[in-house]
Specification:
By secondary structure, the chain is mainly β. Helices cover 8% and strands 53% of the residues. The chain is built from 2 helices and 11 strands. Strands 1, 4, 5, 6, 7, 8, 9, 10 and 11 form a 9-stranded antiparallel sheet that branches. It has a two-stranded antiparallel ribbon with strand order 2-3. The two termini are 54 Å apart.
Length: 180
């Protein structure tokens, strides 16, 4: 029977001595129980929020859009420890910056699917795929001379990889990188 390494070393240092009654009978007491790994919850329903930066690949005529901010929110149902899916929404804002004549915004509504690589533990790496519709609105010009071009809804896909780290029993935080 193996014992936890800290129990063996404590016994070697004399910190854990069996009672004299056991020694008199020549009986070794039962080993201390092994320390259990802390359990991190993987709930079946999750609400995932994201904040980040977006770098657009879209162009308005011959001018490109500036980098902007991104906010996202989606709900996931974790059907198994390795797979989750659910609806979501991502919004990007590409502001007008001094010296630039273009700006815009994008909205992406989709069904998200995640494949997780670990069943338990403090970290939770995943691959994410989303399929849905997006709308990109762009503006060009300055001041009152701004013109607005709106795009039609178009089918869109997004792939991402990321890892979440447990920062409490019910909260996780981590980076991800995606391409839409």
């Amino acid at each position: 029977i193996s014992q936890h390494p800290s129990t063996r070393s404590a016994r070697r240092r004399g910190l854990l001595r069996p009672p004299l009654a056991f020694l008199a009978l020549g009986v070794e007491p039962a080993p201390l129980p092994l320390l259990e790994e802390r359990e991190y919850l993987r709930p079946s329903l999750e609400l995932v929020s994201s904040v980040g930066a977006g770098v657009p690949a879209a162009r308005h005529g011959d001018a490109s859009l500036p980098a902007g901010s991104e906010l996202g929110l989606h709900g996931l149902y974790r059907a198994t420890p390795y797979f989750a899916f659910g609806p979501g929404l991502r919004v990007n804002a590409f502001p007008f910056l001094p010296g630039r004549e273009t700006g815009g915004s994008a909205i992406f509504a989709a069904v998200f699917g995640r494949v997780y690589f670990q069943e338990r533990g403090a970290d939770d790496p995943y691959f994410e795929l989303a399929l849905g519709l997006s709308s990109l609105k762009t503006s060009r010009g300055s001041g009152a001379q701004r013109s607005r071009d709106e795009s039609e809804l178009s089918p869109t896909a997004r792939a991402a990889i990321g890892i979440d780290f447990s920062v409490g029993r019910r909260a996780r935080l981590g980076p991800s990188v995606g391409y839409t």
